[in-house]
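Friendly challenge for the regulars: who can give me the structure tokens for this chain first? No prize, just bragging rights.
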Amino acid sequence: MTQTVAVLGTGKIGEALLSGMIRAGWPASALLVTARRADRAEELRTRYGVEAVTNADAAKRADTLILAVKPQDMNRLLDELAPHVSADRLVISAAAGITTATIESRLAPNTPVVRVMPNTPVLVDEGMSVISGGSHATAEHLAHTEEIFGGVGKTLRVPESQQDAATALSGSGPAYFYFLVEAMTDAGILLGLPRAQAHDLIVQAAIGAAVMLRDSGEHPVKLREAVTSPAGTTINAIRELENHGVRAALIAALEAARDRSRELASGNG
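First reply, four minutes later:
Bragging rights claimed.
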């Protein structure tokens, strides 16, 4: 942990990474941050004891640069960084849909680039970060990236050709669950429960089901069948879900998310 790491674009995800690194033992003196607004930079400096710098200064001083900006802001950021990033720096991109080849083409030849797709549960240290190395990234670079993102959840290495699918499944995944909880809470109200009670029942069911999936090692079909008694309430609900094409709708939704990630990669923002 002797290297200096800079988080460029310290919004919610960037701040989650920053706080996770500090909890994991990174000294604040080894961390730099950038932010668009001066008041945001001061807030981060006060909260974490890190130094707030410009993007150009971060590129000059940091060994690892984490680009935690929105995809539409990446071109502007790379324009600022390109004159200052040497090929011995590691560049980590957390922007959806932006390929390592795109970033490599804008920086010095042979600059190692790693692409990461985190999701919002990094804010509570339960994230999933999907990691792919560019053409110049070594095993050491990937391990260093896992060390950083492992402080806020789990990591998974995949070939970059699978990143768009991972974005659809994992990057956008929490939103699907929130949507489902919202719909089930509304159903609970329709069935006569107060909203707060319906919400608590669904959230705890979701947490319990997730822990069982994670810890039991059982296939989800087997876990579902354990709840589904013959001629009971659950099988009647499952029948209605199938009648309304919920499974097909989910597949179509994830395909749409994957296709949008591909559009972002091609520059069709």
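The mean pLDDT is 94. The longest strand covers residues 127-133. Your move, everyone else.
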